[in-house]
Amino acid sequence: MASTPILSPTTTTTTSSLVHHHHQSLHFCKLPFPNSLTKPSTLNSNRPLTRLHVSTPTNKPSNTTATSTSTSKKPTTETIYFDGGAHYGDLLANLILGFTLLWLPLTLAAVFRAFFLRYRFTNLRVTVISGLTGQDRSDFSYKVIKDVQVVPRFIGEWGDIIITLKDGTKVDLRSVPKFREIAKYCLSLAEKPAVLKETGTKGF
């Protein structure tokens, strides 16, 4: 006679608890989705809108670069290339020849140039100062220079610089030391070919 298996209470409880636990696991995996996720337009309509305001338009170039470029082209400081009077040899030679009455007017002119005439060449302009107290002053820029010529004096130790301006004015600088170097400096700043034109005859 076949015997019927008898399950113990422990085995029955374990089986039933496993089934119940499995049933609960399946039950919790089935999560309901809220209706708000299926309708994004409803959520977006309730949110406040934020607008960005741009102070500088992107289609207009900034003026900072143009200002810095124009500023860099202009020299910031004035540099002196030469500042002095007539060559001392001009005064000495005219004093020696001044013992003759015929040369006396030229001697007086040389004395005036030595004590009351001053030339100044900078990177921005040419300045001629004259007068007993220096009250007479003439300034002009290199941009208005049309031509520069030189006239050697004595044996070429000093010379005259003749500067012709664009309006036809001629500025005669007498007995200038290092006249060739100064004339080339004027031509370079005036953006002219640095070819000196020597005119006149050598003398005092």
Automatic annotation (TrEMBL):
Residues 116-186 form the YdbS-like PH domain. The chain crosses the membrane at residues 91-116. Signal peptide: none annotated. Residues 40-74 are annotated as: Disordered. It holds the Pfam family bPH_2. InterPro entries: YdbS-like_PH (IPR005182). This is YdbS-like PH domain-containing protein. It comes from Pyrus ussuriensis x Pyrus communis. Residues 55-74 have a biased composition (Low complexity). It comes from the Eukaryota.
